[in-house]
Design brief:
Blueprint lengths: L1 E5 L12 E5 L9 E11 L1 H7 L10 E2 L4 E8 L11 E4 L2 E3 L13 E2 L11 E5 L4 E2 L6 H20 L8 E4 L5 H11 L5 E4 L3 H9 L4 E3 L9 E6 L5 H9 E9 L17 H4 L5 E4 L5 H13 L6 E5 L3 H10 L5 E5 L5
Parallel strand pairs: 11-12, 11-14, 12-13, 14-15, 15-16, 17-18
Antiparallel strand pairs: 1-2, 1-4, 3-5, 3-9, 3-18, 5-6, 6-10, 7-8
Length: 339
């Protein structure tokens, strides 16, 4: 099978090519596992964290990718819940304990970090961690829902928002543009305020229904009950705290933060940004319950991601565009006849 393989940890520049197109054996599903013929795989900032070593894979070489949509090609012994040819999805959680807090368990195994992921024509997964994909979504639309959408759903739940509360989103990429659509459905009386550096992205947020959009350093017209941060940087965290009302909550939705601006943390002023019972909450991984609950909601709304597609062999280009380009929606690799 064709696959884009990561062989070593390295810094990622505009012309980097850390992934190489190779031919690998098709994996064999074990007991209780599905072999999936991959149609599409979303491109996530976590892949950059893996390539550069902030979320270092335990082994190399490795196939990255954890926003996977495909069809069941083969079933291992004892599989009961799926049929041959059924369209399914796989997210960041490849398998874990099955408990409600399985995202926090040391037994958590991540797709595309601890085991091979979806930047390939085939991959395997336990059937309990595969999810039927609602019919109305194309393969490319469905892929970002498996991580960007589902982790956004978890972050929104952790924000403890009530209808009518004011929500801020700092960073407006693959996940946040889906959270905006989800928040407008779940909390129809809540205004959503978006913070982003790029004026075109701020305009995009307003097109999708944001009440207001400004630069990362700007102040919202009113103090916010909650802010969700999806950026790889530290400055948005400090600025988000300045926009919170007393008792407000900042939810940081990131696997890792980059070190480029970590010096900003030294400028934190406790009595202005944290005092008055303001809170910071991190989002750690995801459970299979989150993904299973989110997909039907996404279909009901419906939440249709804005996507830009690339062929598998252009995975390095997609990652470079994610790092250095203007991220309008989500980026998706089309692999085995995906649409």
């Amino acid at each position: 099978m064709r696959a884009m393989l990561l062989r070593q940890i390295e810094a990622f520049g505009e012309n980097s090519e850390p992934l190489r197109l190779v031919d690998l054996p098709i994996p064999v599903p074990g007991r209780g596992e599905l072999l999936i013929r991959v149609a599409a795989c979303g491109v996530c900032h976590t892949e950059l964290d893996e390539i550069e070593g902030r979320a270092r894979p335990p082994r190399l070489p490795l196939v990255l990718g954890h926003e996977i949509v495909g069809r069941v090609a083969e079933m291992g012994e004892a599989v009961r819940g799926f049929r041959h040819g059924q369209r399914v999805g796989v997210g960041w959680i490849h398998h874990s304990t099955g408990a409600e807090d399985e995202n926090l368990s040391p037994e958590f195994v991540a797709t595309g970090r601890d085991v091979d992921g979806g930047y390939a024509e085939f991959m395997t997964v336990p059937e309990d961690y595969a999810y039927p994909i609602p019919e109305l979504f194309s393969d490319a639309e469905a892929a970002p829902l498996l991580c960007a959408g589902a982790i956004g759903y978890r972050a929104l739940n952790l924000a403890h928002l009530k209808d009518g509360d004011r929500l801020g989103l700092t960073g407006f990429g693959g996940s946040a543009h889906l959270v905006l659509k989800l928040a407008r459905h779940l909390y129809p009386n809540s205004e959503v305020f978006v913070f982003a550096r790029d004026p075109e992205i701020r305009d995009f947020a307003l097109e999708l229904g944001a009440s207001w959009a400004g630069d990362t350093r700007e102040r919202a017209p009113e103090r916010l009950h909650a802010v969700i941060d999806t950026t790889p940087a530290w400055l948005p965290v400090l600025e988000a705290l300045r926009n919170l009302r007393p008792g407000g909550r900042l939810v940081i939705n990131a696997i890792r933060k980059e070190d480029t601006d970590c010096g900003e943390l030294a400028s934190l002023v406790y009595h202005e940004q944290l005092w008055m019972e303001r809170e910071i909450k991190s989002v750690a991984n995801i459970t299979h319950y989150d993904i299973a609950a989110f997909l039907p909601i996404a279909a009901q709304v419906p939440i249709r991601p804005q996507v830009e597609t690339y062929p598998l062999e252009e995975a390095n280009t997609a990652l470079a565009d994610l790092r250095y380009g203007s991220v309008r929606g989500a980026k998706v690799l089309l692999i085995g006849g995906g649409v």
